[in-house]
Design a protein that fits this description.
373 residues, mainly beta, 3 domains, seven-stranded antiparallel sheet, six-stranded antiparallel sheet, 30 strands, 0% helix, globular
Length: 373
């Protein structure tokens, strides 16, 4: 029996804690401490002891180009972001832009490996309504980073190719040129076809096509509509659309579940502190959860470095600039996670979606089980 194809998840994902230099222009070299070296392609930073925006950079857009999950802001290019990527870490300089900070106070950086910044171009019209995309993919880890340019407004569907060999299960999209909401979509096996759309920067419940946010009509990111490796963008109707406005640039992060390493899924809460157990097939290193039905609930993130012991008390919320909070939401177990709170953001009698990555598989490819925390 094949339990996993990835025996050491730290080859593809790591959470790293470090202390920033705090001096304007100072450079900080950060080396990862996982079992394997990790040369990151997607880097997600957050200052833990201060209310500043999250900072997201990647090697597809080019290091130094920042966006923030806690902001609608367009991409910011400045001299104070990630300055270098190494074979097992990165270097940063002080960053005081709207795109967040990367070298100040107590920091966490969540890192994923794609393809070392090497991209592939995919032409438009290759499969019907596709727009051209440029992607770097790590199919082993079920992860792709890509960019595309919007093809116009109006009511229609377009597809974007990610390079993944199997169906996407979740995708995160951001307009790089304009101040618009992030778009997050999940596959039909995760949420219903009528309500699969979320925004990473706010607490909205799942929405259907046409929901209005501010001055721009929002469409929906629909997964699995066109086939393997594609996601579908559905127009929100008349007016500008924040997922494919003509001539504007976008970035996407696409995922599919990999046995023993990653999981895109859903669960139903119990409103009981001795709550639901959710099987993932691995001991989690990183977990992001969002309530589907009710507004006002955050995108809650826990990881194995901010709190290495159960209950995982320390959390950050992707949609706000708040400092680290202490809310004991989950136990991280050898084969999944268990709800340990009646908090509405994670364990009401409601449905939740989640994205999780492994510290170690439940059982290695050689049949060796992992230990619990």
């Amino acid at each position: 029996m094949a339990y996993t194809t990835i025996d050491d998840p730290s080859e593809y994902f790591q959470a790293t804690l470090y202390t920033g230099s705090d001096n304007a222009g100072a450079t900080k070299v950060v080396t990862n401490d996982g079992n394997s070296d990790l040369q990151p392609d997607w880097l997600w930073f957050k200052k833990r002891n201060g209310a500043v925006n999250h900072a997201i950079q990647d090697t597809s857009r080019g290091i130094g180009n920042g966006i923030s999950s806690s902001s609608t802001g367009a991409e910011v290019n400045d001299d104070f972001g990630v300055t270098a990527i190494s074979s097992d870490g990165f270097s940063v300089r002080e960053n005081t832009s709207a795109a967040g900070v990367v070298n100040e106070g107590s920091m966490v950086c969540w890192q994923w490996k794609a393809n070392g910044g090497t991209t592939t171009s995919h032409s438009s019209g290759s499969n019907g309504a596709e727009v051209a995309s440029v992607y770097q993919v790590n199919d082993t880890a079920g992860f792709s980073i890509g960019t595309y340019t919007g093809a116009g407004g109006g009511t229609f569907n377009i597809a974007v190719y990610t390079g993944l060999s199997a169906s996407c299960e979740a995708v995160i999209v951001k307009n790089r040129d304009a101040a618009t909401d992030w778009a997050v979509g999940f596959g039909e096996n995760i949420t219903t076809s009528g309500s699969r759309y979320f925004s990473l920067n706010n607490t909205h419940a799942a929405q259907s096509v046409g929901a209005n946010s501010g001055e721009r009509q929002q469409g929906a990111v629909n997964v699995n509509s066109f086939g393997a490796g594609l996601f579908d963008l559905t127009s929100g109707g008349a007016g500008d659309n924040d997922i494919f406005e003509d001539g504007e640039k976008y970035v996407f992060y696409a995922f599919r579940s990999i046995q023993g390493y990653s999981k895109v899924g859903k669960y139903t809460g119990t409103n009981n502190a001795d709550g639901q157990f959710v099987y993932t097939g691995f001991k989690p290193a990183w977990l992001m959860v969002k309530r589907v039905t009710d507004a006002g609930r955050a995108w809650v993130i826990h990881d194995n470095k901010q709190d290495p012991h159960n209950v995982t008390a320390n959390r950050l919320d992707a949609n706000v600039n708040d400092a680290q909070q202490s809310s004991g939401h989950f136990d991280f177990l050898s084969n999944g996670f268990k709800c340990r709170s009646t908090e509405g953001a994670t364990n009401a009698a409601s449905t939740y979606v989640y994205l999780a990555f492994a510290e170690s598989p439940f059982v290695s490819s050689k049949g060796v089980p992992t230990t619990a925390r």
